[in-house]
Amino acid sequence: MANLEILINRAAIANRVVELGRQVSADYAGSELLVVGVLTGAFIFTADLVRALDLPLAVDFIRVASYGEATCSSGRISLTKELECQIAGRHLLLVEDIVDTGRTLAWLQAHLLGRNPASLKVCALIDKSERREVAVAVDYVGFPVAEGFLVGYGLDCGDRYRQLPDLCHLRP
Ligand code: IMP
Ligand code: MG
What we know:
Layout: E1 4-8, H1 10-27, E2 33-39, H2 43-51, E3 57-65, E4 78-81, E5 91-99, H3 103-113, E6 119-127, E7 140-144, E8 150-151, E9 167-170
Parallel strand pairs: 2-3, 2-5, 5-6, 6-7
Antiparallel strand pairs: 1-9, 3-4, 8-9
């Protein structure tokens, strides 16, 4: 797989997940959390993050489609799997793989806030803040990344490469 280059290896990811877990656990001490993973990209990050949290919590998943087979956003977002639990009055932590233009996150925030959670914060593994087109607040960032298309650790290109244990740059 010559077109892949490791950007953030599995050990660095694991260390950062532990740090994020400590930070989130401290911030939410005394409350109960509903962790909402955004499928499919955040499935591995969500699984690792919840095991780094020292809090009572529940986990649910939501799925939106924004990217198709290509490496650029379609700009259109559709909900393809709704949450299954009630969120009114609960503290939500939305777990995303990447925040890029911010369109997906802005859509998700509006969708979830419309159902009156007690609070809503966002934890993203990767923040490509320099590419932002819509202003969105990301409360917890795993790694800021300036450029390039990333795969591995849950992230895909056309549904491939999710199983790679490291975060890799995919060269065209
Ligand atoms: P946004 O709506 O432009 O912020 O796009 C966010 C979504 O696009 C993420 O949840 C990813 O699924 C996808 N995405 C953006 N950049 C990448 C990348 O470098 N690799 C894989 N998926 C990406
Ligand atoms: Mg994706």
